[in-house]
């Protein structure tokens, strides 16, 4: 199915009046309600902003994809707005927010939503597409541009649709102190380890750090009546500038390519009890899937 078939000219506005994303969302939803007045505007609007509070849907390159999975619609609705002057919201890459793609989907079609989001993101990745759509003068121009791109919705949900691109990583020579700082600063629980050629050679997690501090944890468990306070961690901290990742990391790594099936990867993660999977292209790290991605992007939507 071609992406352009999801677009309705009446739901496209090439000159948004809003100066902030929240107002742009309202402006686009009002287009949807004007054409489909039976929809529950306030309930849908609340669902959109509730999702925005969970995670900012501005993904860079001047694009944002606000959306809601709601029982108030029975099919996919896609509305698109273009801000000629750019919206005033902060963005992750510093590029002004100019394209808002609003998606409304029923609760039971998360796969279709992700396929649509992936197709829109594919369109947004191409600089020539961004230049052309910024210059569109009519809604029909937008539909024709997207049709000319030939982008289609993929049949199978793949890792590419849910992975984090350009993830944080460390090398075997990274120190324990640097690892701990990265985990804390970015509120993450583990990192892929890559060699000088960007090949994935291991993973290191917060559990590895704790295990290094408490190598005799089994004996500690059998003597819970004793008081150990923080001694094991103090011993580790005294060496945090000398201990390196290669001394602590796990080299038993399950990695996948971008076209791997999300269902298959999720099953392996459950079976092997792993929380993160490096994504590789020609054996080089290009992304990361963590178990929370499956929850937030598929189950939560």
Please give a structural write-up.
- With about 300 residues, this protein is α/β, with parallel strands linked by helices.
- It has two domains: about 5-155, Mannitol-specific EII, Chain A; about 165-300, CBS-domain (Roll).
- Helices cover about 40% and strands about 20% of the residues.
- It has helices at about 20-35, 40-55, 110-125, 125-135, 140-150, 175-185, 205-215, 215-220, 230-235, 245-250, 260-270, 290-300; strands at about 10-15, 60, 65, 65-70, 75-85, 95-105, 165, 190-195, 200-205, 255, 275-280, 285-290.
- The strands form three sheets. Strands 1, 2, 3, 4, 5 and 6 form a six-stranded mixed beta sheet that branches. Strands 7-12-11-10 form a four-stranded mixed beta sheet.
- Helix 1 (about 20-35) runs antiparallel to helix 2 (about 40-55).
- It starts with 11 loop residues before the first strand and ends with a helix.
Write the layout of secondary structure elements.
Blueprint: E1 12-13, H1 21-35, H2 41-54, E2 58-60, E3 63-64, E4 67-69, E5 77-87, E6 97-105, H3 110-125, H4 127-134, H5 139-149, E7 164-165, H6 176-185, E8 190-194, E9 200-205, H7 206-213, H8 217-221, H9 231-237, H10 245-248, E10 256-257, H11 262-272, E11 276-281, E12 284-290, H12 291-299
Helix pairs in contact: 1-2
| Separation, N- and C-terminal Cα atoms | 21 Å
The CATH first-level class of the largest domain comes to Alpha Beta
- Residue share in β-strands: 15-25%
How many whole angstroms does the radius of gyration measure? 23 Å
Range of helix content: 25-40%
Low-confidence stretches: none
CATH superfamily of the largest domain: Mannitol-specific EII, Chain A
Report the biggest beta sheet as strand number plus sense, adding barrel if it closes.
6 strands, mixed
H-E string: EHHEEEEEHHHEHEEHHHHEHEEH
What does the average pLDDT come to?
Answer: 85
Q: What spatial form do the alpha-carbon principal axes imply?
A: elongated
Number of strands: 12
**Second rung of CATH, namely the architecture of the largest domain:** 3-Layer(aba) Sandwich
Number of domains: 2
